[in-house]
Write a structure and sequence with these properties.
Blueprint lengths: L13 H4 L4 H9 L8 H5 L1 E7 L2 E6 L14 H17 L6 E12 L9 E10 L3 E10 L5 E13 L2
Antiparallel strand pairs: 1-2, 2-4, 3-6, 4-5, 5-6
């Protein structure tokens, strides 16, 4: 079960993180060896599954995630899709390298009801020495319906 960092001191140092491949890094968050970032707790989602080239986050939007019209804010969809797609890229980043999102795009296909449990799935299309490309989707756990899609490009940088 993933645990969440409660302060910056809880996160791995860059030197410790660089000793792990991206897949090892993500697996260590999933199994609780290393803490995950607090954004998941803030936004109501957690890492659910990790394999090479694929990551799943599970969560549900709460009232705190709504816009002035009372519907789920587009930023919630974007945050989840950015997390899943970028972390999918991370699973293919070698030891001694880091990555970050360069750009991402989302398409919201239908509104999510508050409290509805979803899976946000990120899958890599390509990860090379300097770029990673991935796509993602948000689907209802119970109904299987597609609620949003996304795509991303990440930069991969060798540090050591």
């Amino acid at each position: 079960m993933p645990r969440v960092a409660q302060s910056p001191a809880d996160l791995l140092s860059q030197s410790d993180a660089l000793k792990l491949s991206g897949l090892e890094f993500m697996q260590a968050i999933l199994d609780g060896t290393n803490p995950g970032p607090p954004i998941g707790q803030t936004m109501g989602y957690a890492l659910h599954a990790v394999e090479e080239g694929r990551v799943v986050f599970r969560g549900a939007p709460s009232f705190a995630m709504t816009n002035p019209m009372g519907t789920v804010h587009g930023g919630w969809y974007g945050t989840l899709l950015d997390s899943a797609m970028a972390c999918a890229v991370m699973t293919k980043v070698p030891r001694g390298s880091v990555y970050t999102t360069l750009e991402y795009k989302i398409n919201i296909l239908r509104g999510l009801p508050l409290g509805m449990e979803i899976d946000c799935i990120g899958v890599t299309d390509h990860v090379g020495r300097s770029t990673g490309v991935a796509h993602g989707e948000i689907r209802g756990v119970e109904d299987g319906k597609l609620y949003a899609t996304g795509s991303t490009t990440c930069i991969v940088m060798k540090i050591t």
